[in-house]
């Protein structure tokens, strides 16, 4: 049994969840773990001097639990109930491989996760487009005035810069302004290549 662990990270509202769901429908034995499921309750998330809840930092997440969930999946993917009906257009030679897509905004800045990835993708958006998309979403708790400019965007730039400065980390940057079809086609083809390598 072989497993492939795919990281789908990047900017808020970059299309990570949509892309992950579409890939799951196209790939055999594919499961998704979402980083959003590991947020601490609001009462445990720090507030800064401006009154902003600091959600876009590692301390706002139960990262140990997330790593444990991924490791448990790697140990026993079949028991996670991911054996799916065979998707269309799947090559026969990849059906005995289990695939986990982990999607989230802060995947590659936490060392215990970095040894687990087979492939890392990172969706990017320019400031104006990201702000526009964010404004159309309803969050719980809701974004306070100035939150995007004061916390969300600066944290995104900080973590993205950390990635870019880490020359040893291979990350495939994806332009989140491209159509979902383009992004899906590119990532799907790339994953199929990776699956074929596992078969060699």
Automatic annotation (TrEMBL):
The keyword Kinase applies. One of its GO terms (biological process) is NAD+ metabolic process. GO terms for cellular component: cytosol. It catalyses: beta-D-ribosylnicotinate + ATP = nicotinate beta-D-ribonucleotide + ADP + H(+); beta-nicotinamide D-riboside + ATP = beta-nicotinamide D-ribonucleotide + ADP + H(+). Pathway: Cofactor biosynthesis; NAD(+) biosynthesis. GO terms for molecular function: ATP binding; metal ion binding; nicotinate riboside kinase activity; ribosylnicotinamide kinase activity. Keywords: ATP-binding, Kinase, Magnesium, Metal-binding, Nucleotide-binding, Pyridine nucleotide biosynthesis, Transferase. It comes from the Eukaryota. SUPFAM superfamilies: P-loop containing nucleoside triphosphate hydrolases. Belongs to the uridine kinase family. NRK subfamily. This is NRK1 kinase. It comes from Dicrurus megarhynchus.
